[in-house]
Amino acid sequence: MIEMIDVYKTYPNGVLAVNGINVKINPGEFVYVVGPSGAGKSTFIKMMYREEKPTKGTIRINDINLGKLKESKVPLLRRNIGVVFQDFKLLPKLTVYENVAFALEVIEESPKNIKRRVMDVLDLVRLKHKARFLPDELSGGEQQRVSIARSIVNNPKVMIADEPTGNLDPETSWEIMNIFEEINTRGTTIVMATHNREIVNTIRKRVIAIENGKIARDEVRGDYGYES
User: Fold this and answer.
1) Mean pLDDT confidence for 46-74
2) Are strands 2-10 and 189-193 parallel, antiparallel or unpaired?
3) What Rg, from alpha-carbon coordinates, does the chain have?
4) What is the reported pTM?
5) Residue 131 in contact with residue 95, Cβ under 8 Å?
6) Rounded distance, CA 46 to CA 6, Å?
7) N vs C: which end of the chain shows fewer Cβ within 10 Å?
């Protein structure tokens, strides 16, 4: 599903963010990516959806070699990978329904299928009743749920989440995690970078800890392992 082989990433300023990572994530896994600030977590995550390219090494997702992928094919790759960000990245002038539908409109899905699929995923994230609301009429947790709905509306095999609970209060964070767990039980592989010690230690999953650009720990049912 996801494989990195001898991956390095050096930025133009000389910072070595990823230093010889080898990792394999199997279909259906739920993986936390943890580590101190500046350890290389964000770069590790961004390389999975080609926001960043490795300086050296091989990255494969769904048998696609990201290093050899033409720029013109990157949008297609991202349509098959759901990405959820800390700051939601919703389109402010579009309704909840329109934000989620947009991902299907760009691939020219039929209006009938768009309506059915959008309402299905809004039901999953418990926001069907707010389909006509604008993002600024929602709470932070509701906006994140819209972001999750948008990321899964294309039925991606892989979902990548970069600090998805970082801007949310504890109660809302647990609601978001329940949704992620439900998505995972439906077969979607989830890779989540997080600083939330309590979530990692309570909802035990595989933990990959990155320190100084290297994998320091890779545990099947790991704990957070750092002071938060």
Assistant:
1) 91
2) unpaired
3) 17
4) 0.90
5) yes
6) 16
7) C
